[in-house]
Amino acid sequence: MKLLVCVTQTPETTANISFNADNTEFNTTGVNFIMNPYDEWYALVRALELKEAQGGSVTIINVGPATNDTVIRKGLAIGADDAVRINAEPKSSMFVAKQISEYAKQGNFDMVISGKESIDYNGASVAAMIAEYLDLPFISFGTKMEVNENIAIINRDIEGGEEVVEVATPFVLSAAKGMAEQRIPNMRGIMMAKRKPLNIIEPVAFDDPVAVVGYTLPSAKSAVKMVDPEDMDELVRLLHEEAKII
Questions:
Q1: What is the pLDDT of residues 90-107, one digit of tens each?
Q2: Which of 87, 60, 64 is nearest to 75 (CA)?
Q3: The dihedral of CA 180, 186, 190, 193: what is its sign?
Q4: Are 3 and 58 in contact (CB under 8 A)?
Q5: How many other C-beta atoms can be found within 10 angstroms of the C-beta atom of residue 160?
Q6: Looking at the whole model, is its pTM more than 0.85?
Q7: CA dist list (Å): 126 to 144, 229, 245
Q8: Which of 9, 136, 149, 203 is deepest in the core (most CB within 10 A)?
Q9: Which domains does the chain have, with CATH numbers?
Q10: How many Å apart are CA 1 and CA 46, to the nearest integer?
Q11: Per-position DSSP letters for 14-33, written without gaps between them
């Protein structure tokens, strides 16, 4: 089974968020970056489990500059066989999906797997766009997957419940919590990752219709008000007059 796992680099959840002078670019100064947890914990680990059970290979792919190599090497340390970095700034979801899909077309992969979303933009759109470019079935928010030869049975979250679907390979999947359990790279994996191939390729030409106009930070939260547990009248007043529904 030949598997392609899409990974992206995101700021740590505790990072201080700010933008440059004209508010069109994220300010990376002092920010520590990690592999997007949905990509790492669920998509990559489930792909590795499938390889271990059925044989095959796992390739990870990333769209980004050379500064992403540390995150990519972590994926290799966890167990991926090789990696590809498309040497371009990930300007939009559509741009990223186009670059990944063009590479995937050449690889004859049985599955393309990503996390359900990135924790910075929360767009949950790249995997669906990849499926559209590849003209393949797409299953979103998968929480469990069992594979028998070329047939996958996938549980996925839906509004108010769970759906079970059956799909034949090849297909595209976005993985959510429950798909797998996090793996910590061991020393052997870290040492082996240094010798695994990381192939750098240039992006294909693409006229991106998306451009960032600007970013804004959310309004600062108001101060916390403490209410005496015996003073229910005051609590009711505050809820009626001052509480805001977000």
A1: 989 999 999 999 999 999
A2: 60
A3: negative
A4: yes
A5: 5
A6: yes
A7: 20, 48, 31
A8: 9
A9: 2-216 (3.40.50.620)
A10: 13
A11: TPPP-B-TTSSSB--TT--E
